[in-house]
Amino acid sequence: MRRFRVWKTLLGLRRAVIEEVELEEGGVLVVSVRPKARERDRCPHCRRRCPGYDWGEGRRRWRALDLGTSFCFLEAEAPRVRCRQHGVVVAAVPWARHDSNFTRSFEDQVCWLAVNTSKTAVAELMRIAWRTVGWICERVTAEQEAKRDLLAGLTRLGIDEISVRKGQRYLTLVVDHDSGRLVWAHPGRDRATVEKFLDLLGEERCERITLVSCDMADWITGPIGERCPNAEVCYDPFHLVKLASDALDEVRREVWNDARRAGQTVLAKELKGARFALWKNPDRLTERQKLKLAQIQQTNKPLFRAYLLCQQLRMIYRVGCEHALALLDAWLAWARRCRLHPFVKLAKTITKQRAGIEAALHHGLSNAPVEQVNTQIRLITRRGFGYHPPWAVIALAMLSLGGLCPPLPGR
Ligand SMILES: [Zn+2]
Question: What is the pLDDT of residues 117-129, one digit of tens each?
């Protein structure tokens, strides 16, 4: 066995015995192996030792990390065992995950690359299809999730949704506010999805949740209110500011349409160009944009009023909590009588949801960690998982944002 010691080290093989090393035609390296006696006849699910059943489908191969420029495969018998709990299954092998045609090191490296490099880099370097990368990520994520309890010790949550594939598919995300980690992601954005998460959390841990930040969506707040008795719901400032921006945009569009219909083409054109000036933070405006705003102030009073309303609402989140509440009251009074329909409507919404907004101000909580996870998932989907079923996106998200990515093999 001594003659294989170098091979064993090179392959990073543990708990296995090398029987033969052969170079096949085309420079493919095939290493015949068998598990050490102690590792034989174990169930892949519970690791329990089981009586043998049959020889299964005979010898099979697992793709290992390339050695230099050569493909490398491990080859071994794949007998089946009969587990008391899991029935007849192919026996576990120490070098690979159950149901995989790749070795553990190979899969770990694929995951690390999928998290840290581009789609083309991982597929070309590892000489596998992109689809296969998705499957590997799913398998490794499932294994890591089974090993760790990501929901342990959760007290403050952020819940949000993200659309993958241009609004056709949605994922619900749950982020731990304290660590900023993604702890759960699931396809769908409805009550049933949130219920599924709460089922997983269990009654006892639901009671320990003290804070949930989210947007003003009934499908989130409904189940949380019913099943997390100690949780305070906070409406996330980002969403509130976004609602104000949407209202501003609605006013801008109305004014623009009116101008166009009245044949004021110059004004219409100006308004169309004003979008960025209206949206930006005042202290980040360029000279040209400042000029544009000044023009609007002179020629278009309603639009400028909408702009000020929007900026004022943003201010609420920049001052301390005591001032913020007074400012919010003043804002509501102003918005109610501003004669701009979208803002009157927004004032109504805010009045109705005031408790959640105040809670967010009081706790100084923002959905920033959730937004960050959201942005990063968007990047992940853009990197090429968009063509995949959502499970591949979720797996990659959990690997990179849930901290589940295994280290590079041998490190
Ligand atoms: Zn078993």
Answer: 887 899 999 999 9
Q: How far is the CA of 88 from the centre of ligand 1 (A)?
A: 9
Distance (angstroms) between ligand 1 centre and the Cα of 144 equals 18
Q: How many angstroms does the Cα of residue 99 sit away from the middle of ligand 1? A: 14
User: Stretch 146-161: mean pLDDT, rounded?
Assistant: 92
Q: Are strands 232-235 and 211-214 parallel, antiparallel or unpaired?
A: parallel
More confident: 119 or 177: 177
Cα-to-centroid distance, 204 and ligand 1 (Å): 29
Residue 295: C-alpha distances to residues 255, 299, 301 (Å) = 14, 6, 10
In this structure, what token pair is assigned to residue 89? 């299954």
Question: For the chain, what is the radius of gyration of the CA atoms?
Answer: 29
Distance of CA 102 from the midpoint of ligand 1 (Å): 22
The alpha carbon of 289 and the centre of ligand 1 are apart by a number of angstroms equal to 67
CA of 46 to the centre of ligand 1 (A): 4
* CA of residue 362 to ligand 1 center, whole Å: 51
Half-sphere exposure of 75 (CA within 13 A, CB side): 14
Contact 335, 347 (CB under 8 A): yes
Q: Give residue 93 CA to ligand 1 midpoint distance, Å.
A: 14
Residues 6+ apart with CB under 8 A from 24: 30
Distance of CA 44 from the midpoint of ligand 1 (Å):
6
pLDDT digits (tens, 9 = 90+) for 339-358: 999 999 999 999 999 999 99
* CB-count burial class (<10 Å; 0-12, 13-18, 19+) for 329: exposed
Task: Tell me the CA–centroid distance for residue 49 and ligand 1, in Å.
Answer: 8
